Amino acid sequence: MAVKASSEFDYEICNNRIRPIAEALISKYEELRHIDPDKILFLVNHKSSGSKKQMVLARTSKISPKWTEILYQLGACSYFYTVEFYAKTTAAMDESQMVALVYRELRRIGPEGEILIPDVHDWWQILMGLGRKWFYPDSTCPNLLDDNVDWKKLMGQYYEDIHTAE
Q1: Of 92 and 158, which is predicted with more confidence?
Q2: pLDDT tens across 72-84, in order?
Q3: Among residues 92, 115, 90, 91, which one has the least CA distance to residue 105?
């Protein structure tokens, strides 16, 4: 993701860049197969960094029925989720790191369509699979779309299926 140079908008729709990554991840990983990437609106937020208290890379949320209907009336697809990437914190990420971030955000969409709240297990799996500094600019992480990379194998004994919200 590039930091905004002088864009006229604070928010940018990035479906053309991110949806192919999401489609490939969903196709490759069984735990994501319940997700329809056409129902996700991918955005880049150039304005905010997400939180002043902690670094936020991205945020996945449901779109309210009101906005789903409004977007549909404007000619957009029926979007039910947004995945919002914060340009200020993702600008220095390489392709493998962005793929890992998209994977992490897709895992937040539960099998019943609910948004799963990140918990200790979610972070533990990311840390065990990708390393503690997987998103740092000078770090590397495996590209989850490479043929020789499998999340379950990466996690080994620490792999857990996605938990549903209670």
Answers
A1: 92
A2: 898 878 889 999 9
A3: 115
The CA angle 73-17-36, to the nearest 5 degrees, is 55
CA-to-CA distance for 44 and 12, rounded, in angstroms? 5
Which pLDDT score, from 0 to 100, does residue 110 have? 94
Residue-wise burial string across 121-144, b where 16 or more C-beta atoms lie within 10 A, e elsewhere? ebeebbeebbeeebbeeeeebbbb
- Token pair for 101: 């971030």
For the chain, what are the domain ranges? 11-158
Q: Compute the distance between CA of residue 130 and CA of residue 143 in angstroms, rounded to an integer.
A: 10
| 70: enclosing H helix or E strand | helix 65-73
C-alpha distances (whole Å) from 106 to each of 10, 42, 60, 135, 139 are: 23, 11, 8, 17, 22
DSSP category for residue 60: E
Do 86 and 70 meet the contact criterion of CB atoms below 8 Å apart? no
Question: Does the pTM of the predicted model rise above 0.90?
Answer: no
